Amino acid sequence: xxxxxxxxxxxxxxxxxxxxxxxxxxxxxxxxQALPVKVYVTDRRLNRSVAQSVNTFGMVTxxxxxxxxxxxxxxxxxxxxxxxxxFTEGEDGNVVSVTLRNFENQYTPGLLTSxxxxxxxxxxxxxxx
Length: 129
Prior knowledge:
This protein is mainly beta. It has a domain at 38-124. The protein is built from one helix and seven strands; from the N terminus they run E-E-E-E-E-H-E-E. The protein has one helix spanning 70-84, and strands spanning 3-6, 15-20, 37-43, 51-54, 60-66, 94-108, 115-127. The strands form two sheets. Strands 1-2-5-4 form a four-stranded mixed sheet. The longest helix is centred in the middle third of the chain and has 15 residues, at 70-84. The chain starts with a strand and ends with a strand.
């Protein structure tokens, strides 16, 4: 599962969109049609900013927030992947509970090249319906 933070090249970017891009086509899973599935996401992040805008000298110029909801993007990602695997969405079946604990990107400026590292921490469990 890959959630990406789309950040523009400007060092004063303070708002970004969070979007999900599926990696590959997923095969249907056995018995996926048996019960519908409902996904619930709880956002337990202590820090709501997803990154910090950094200038050429490595100084933080601003916190970067999301323009859309990270928890909604994560919920949509789970729902899309379950749908791609043959599951249907519904209230009278299994419940997938997801808890988002961390979602951030760290930009590292360099003289000739720059880099970025993203971290996401979440847990999920299924409750039988």
